[in-house]
Amino acid sequence: MDKKVVTRFAPSPTGRFHLGGVRSALYNYLFAKQNKGKYILRSEDTDKERSRKEYEAGFLELFEWLELRPDIFFRQSERTEIYKKYLEKMIADGFAYISKEEIKKEGERNEVIRFKNPNKKISFSDIVLGNITFDTTDLKDFVIAKSLTEPLYHLTVVVDDHEMEVTHVIRGQEHIANTPRQILIQEAIGASRPFYAHLPLILGKDRAKLSKRDPEVIPALEYRDLGYLPEAIINFMALIGWNPGGETEVFTLTELIEKFNLYKIQKSGGVFNSEKLDWLNKEHLKKMSPKEIEKNILTWLPEKMRNSEITAKLFPIIIERISKWGEVRDMAERGELDFFFEQPKIDKAKLAYKNSSPEKIANNLKLAIKTLESLEEKKFTTEIIKNTLMLIADNLESRGELLHPVRYALSGKEKSPDPFIIASIIGKNETLSRLQKAI
RNA sequence: GGCCCUAUCGUCUAACGGUUAGGACAUCGGGUUUUCAAUCCGGUAAUCAGGGUUCGAUUCCCUGUGGGGUCACCA
């Protein structure tokens, strides 16, 4: 290993970028970084019809968000002159020729540049898959450019990888059949052969390849809008097709750079499991500092809930109940936070606890008011309220006889955080008033 | 269909040719001072099939089957 490692990820801006590509980019990035090498991002935009600037902007924004920043970024559309030189040389050397064509489809040329196929067997050793052999005879004289200034994919890939001295081509297995063509071109232009690592495909629930044409597949950037953490996305994607072997599954980018092993990659495709992503996102959420958590929750909360003195007390309750930021917004939209800010509507029937009589419930509520009243304002904390109320509850047939109606009176919800914390958040006056009203 | 790749719990995966086939997510059951959440403990669950090689195959070989990819003047 005397040569400096150079990897590249080469998306084409012809559609909305999805998570499958993130994993390829990530592995290229990890391998380059762990070898103190270089990671190149290349926009394969030679197809003028299909390429769109907004798609390119999309993946650039994505990698910025994920902090998978390339050492070099460039576009193939800006390198036409370079490809032209190679094309001319290949024609001059007899490796390619201008071919007269019959036009079968609209937009086709009556003259294209074809590669003169030597029709031989090509074998290469893939880091993931091992030895693979293709007979290139099946490939015929394939087209490498529409004209000298309109090069096609196979030619530009080989020229760029050669010029930029890419040492490791790490890409999805959908490219495996492209490899023999590209090796043929390498041999024609005198380029050395890089190491290949063809990654197992990431599959959807139906076990088919994730595709940008599939409306079911969520574009990668939308995960940001759903409130996922970049580190969680990276962590999760890294673990489809590779695994460090221990029992730990939660890693930061830095840890991944250290642990990643290109030589221990799975051969078969893996299904994308969004439940595990959610779990992992929560794990990363738990590692964040309270300050960061507060900042994020604030931005995801509806405006009317942001600036109340109540808000500051809500963070622990919220963070416990979400796995991604988007759920903060969901909670608020579902009205699960409203009772902290305003008196809830009470349904008499729901105040009841199992078989306890209404009189008993009312009595318990009165008892609660009486004891809480005696608490000083500044002693109205979760801990003290809990101790106070528990003292009463423990003397009842079951604690629920007191705790349920109190909780319901305060929240107006069948399901909510416990009554002690709600009481401490809304304060003494509000608590007493709600209990009174319930009676 | 041709060519190529592939096969461990539902899912992601671990296991120098020798393990009670391990972990995680999900699921189920229970504890955790009422519900939800969080948390803890426990359970169910897998080597595609058939042949070899071997004292011994999840592991190596062959065949079958299943799954996937690819067959453009797209990338």
Count of individual helical segments: 18
Number of strands: 13
Query: How can the largest sheet be summarized?
Result: 4 strands, antiparallel
As a percent range, the share of helical residues equals: 40-55%
Instruction: Give Rg in angstroms.
Output: 31 Å
What separation lies between the terminal Cα atoms? Answer: 80 Å
Shape: elongated
Low-confidence residue ranges: none
The main sheet orders its strands as: 4-5-8-9
How much beta, percentage-wise? 5-15%
Class of secondary structure makeup: alpha/beta
| Average of per-residue pLDDT values | 94
What topology emerges from the helices and strands here?
Elements: E1 6-9, H1 19-34, E2 38-43, H2 53-66, E3 72-75, H3 80-93, E4 96-100, E5 111-115, E6 121-126, E7 130-135, E8 143-147, E9 150-151, H4 153-163, E10 168-172, H5 179-189, E11 195-199, E12 202-203, H6 222-225, H7 230-238, H8 253-259, E13 270-271, H9 274-286, H10 290-300, H11 311-321, H12 326-333, H13 348-351, H14 358-373, H15 382-393, H16 400-411, H17 419-426, H18 428-438
Parallel strand pairs: 1-2, 2-3, 10-11, 12-13
Antiparallel strand pairs: 4-5, 5-8, 6-7, 8-9
Helix pairs in contact: 1-8, 4-5, 7-9, 10-11, 14-15, 14-16, 14-18, 15-16, 15-17, 16-17, 17-18
The structure holds one RNA strand of 75 nucleotides.
